[in-house]
Amino acid sequence: MNEYCYISKTKLLKNNGTSFIRKQCFTQTDSLLDDVLDTSMFDKKVKQAQNVLFIIAVVQLVWGIIRLLDSKGPEWGIEITVNIVIAGLFVGLALWCKFKPVAAIVAALVLYAGLFALDVWADGSAIYKGIIFKIIIVIYLVKGLGAAREAQRIKNFGK
Q: Can you state the angle between helices 101-122 and 131-157, rounded to 10 degrees?
């Protein structure tokens, strides 16, 4: 493993303008482009996708509580448990999005599409219920996925 070093002269204002020489070293495995490449634009879209996952979790939990208050049959326990588990899955995916955004967003899209398909299978009219909200969620997740892929490609470019 090769080690590269450079020397810079720095003047400190704190210490009465004293100058000192600093030696900075890095190994060949470090990316030289980390300082040059800016992924903040992509990181912002990934953060938006992460926020959408948190919003899905909250909506799922609130919907479960509303259904719980409206339910009078013995199946209320199953309904609230399912809604809590689904909300927990989306919270978990949102937290995972910080470490592996591409995988987390793909998993979220698959889970969201699967839940939508189950909802339509159980009630055919569910395809129209909240369609604008569902489209907005998918758009933000797809944009976040594209941004996460691009940021990952840029970060891996210098390695």
A: 160
Helix (H, G, I), strand (E, B) or coil at 33: coil
Q: CA 102 to CA 55: how far, in whole Å? A: 18
**Distance of alpha carbon 138 from alpha carbon 44, whole angstroms:** 17
Q: What's the CA gap between 80 and 67, in Å, rounded?
A: 8
**Average pLDDT score, the chain:** 77
Q: Which amino acid is at 26?
A: F
State how far the Cα of 24 lies from the Cα of 5, in Å rounded to an integer: 6
- What would the pLDDT profile of 74-88 be if each residue is shown by its tens digit? 777 777 888 889 999
Length of the chain: 159
Structure tokens at 70: 């409206």
Q: Which two tokens stand for residue 48?
A: 């938006």
